[in-house]
Write a structure and sequence with these properties.
Layout lengths: L1 E4 L14 H9 L3 E5 L10 H6 L3 E3 L2 H7 L2 E3 L6 H4 L7 E4 L7 H10 L2 E4 L14 H19 L20 E5 L3 H13 L2 E6 L2 H10 L4 E5 L2 H10 L2 E4 L14 H4 L7 E4 L20 E4 L2 E4 L9 H22 L1 H7 L1 H6 E4 L2 E2 L2 H6 L9 H4 L2
Parallel strand pairs: 1-2, 1-4, 2-3, 4-5, 5-6, 7-8, 7-10, 8-9, 10-11, 11-13
Antiparallel strand pairs: 6-14, 12-13, 14-15
Helix pairs in contact: 6-7, 11-12
């Protein structure tokens, strides 16, 4: 199979879809790999490293898209790339369709085959291709929140760690999954008081067993959410329904309960955000103010730590990419349940129901089993 990796063009997206080690793995399996020149620069990967691993370097994104049977990238195609997509072309990337109707309709119109990292799911319920970036974003969230808590950045002027004689900050985390647990560990490491809310009692039990004493796992209901919002100096949104829009746990009315200058980091923004007032931002312009609450809603947070994120992602994606390239996407999805769950669109048909439900496109939905030849 001919595999292509174009340079990412999303705002301040420095990650790369393929690393030299992945190139070598694809080449050893008998595939051709085409990489756009400069695709890895943001992650500290030189073109010469790709060439040494067996990649063929091309000058433009148009060449990559035109040659490749499978595109491997990090973020969803941007509007400037819609016209480059080809019917029947496999695109293996993060899509987060349920948060972007324009992208969904463009990919349906171009009749691509969309394999979404974020919905590849193993039998045990794990999301192996979402996990590494959730780990990065979760660990970043308290760091970004702490930065904007400074008075010079609009925050309350409270040091998360506290100082002798002064209490540390209170961090509220909504969701106890990969993002939430990683955010809790870093927040606790800073010395903050941490409350982590979740509705899964098994998750709460596990968190209680593994977290330090300054982390309190608590069952989430409307009362505990409101109490937590009143007490918090920083709020981290870490809720996830795989492939579907995030639930709006924080309403506009809730903002009035929160302390002025409280920082809200919405890691769920890729799936639409978990607050009514959330909207995607960029690393160029990461925050905005609503009712005296600072909102940090950057949709590609791990792009800021591009090298770590790129290698962590490839450590996971290459395993499944080799299955797709080695036996065709149709056979791979039929034989591998995890990949089948990752199939979101197939040649003009929606094969992941939450995407269809997000935009009232149920008429275009068919289960993957029905559309795969």
């Amino acid at each position: 199979m001919k595999i292509g990796c174009p340079k990412e063009i999303k705002n301040n997206e420095y990650r790369a879809g393929i690393i030299p080690g992945s190139v070598r793995a694809y080449r050893q399996a008998g595939h051709e790999v085409y990489v756009q020149k400069g695709a890895g620069v943001g992650a500290g990967i030189l073109d010469a490293e790709y060439e040494d691993s067996g990649a063929k370097m091309v000058d433009t994104a148009e060449e990559v898209w035109n040659i490749a049977e499978m595109i491997v990238k990090v973020k969803e195609p941007m509007p400037g790339e819609y016209g480059l997509m080809k019917s029947g072309q496999v695109i293996y990337a993060y899509f987060h369709f349920a948060a972007d109707e324009q992208l969904t309709r463009a990919c349906l119109e171009r009749e691509i085959i969309a394999l979404a990292y974020e919905t590849v799911q193993e039998a045990n319920g794990s999301l192996p291709l979402l996990k590494p970036m959730s780990e990065v974003a979760g660990r970043m969230a308290p760091i970004m929140g702490a930065y904007y808590m400074a008075r010079i950045h609009g925050g309350r002027g409270m040091l998360p760690t506290g100082v002798p004689g002064v209490a540390p900050a209170h961090v509220l985390i909504l969701g106890g999954g990969t993002v939430g647990s990683n955010a809790a560990r870093v927040s606790a490491g800073l010395g903050a008081w941490v409350t982590i809310l979740d509705i899964n009692l098994d998750t709460l039990e596990n968190l209680g067993n593994i977290m330090p004493l300054n982390v309190s796992p608590i069952y989430a209901d409307s009362y505990t959410i409101e109490r937590g919002l009143r007490e918090a100096d920083m709020v981290i949104g870490a809720v996830l329904i795989p492939g579907a829009r995030a639930p709006k746990l924080i309403t506009r009315a809730h903002l009035g309960m929160m302390k002025p200058g409280c920082v809200f980091v919405d890691v769920a923004i890729d799936q639409g955000g978990c607050a009514e007032t959330s909207r995607p931002t960029t690393h160029d312009d990461p925050v905005y103010l609503v009712d005296n609450i600072i909102h940090y809603c950057v949709a590609n947070m791990p792009g800021a730590y591009a090298r770590s994120s790129t290698f962590a992602l490839n450590n996971r994606t290459v395993k499944y990419g080799l299955k797709i390239a080695g036996m065709s996407v149709e056979k791979a999805c039929r034989r591998n349940m995890a990949l089948r769950k990752g199939l979101n669109l197939y040649r003009g048909t929606i094969t992941f129901k939450p995407v269809a439900e997000a935009f009232g496109l149920e008429a275009l939905y068919r289960p993957a089993d029905e559309v795969l030849p």
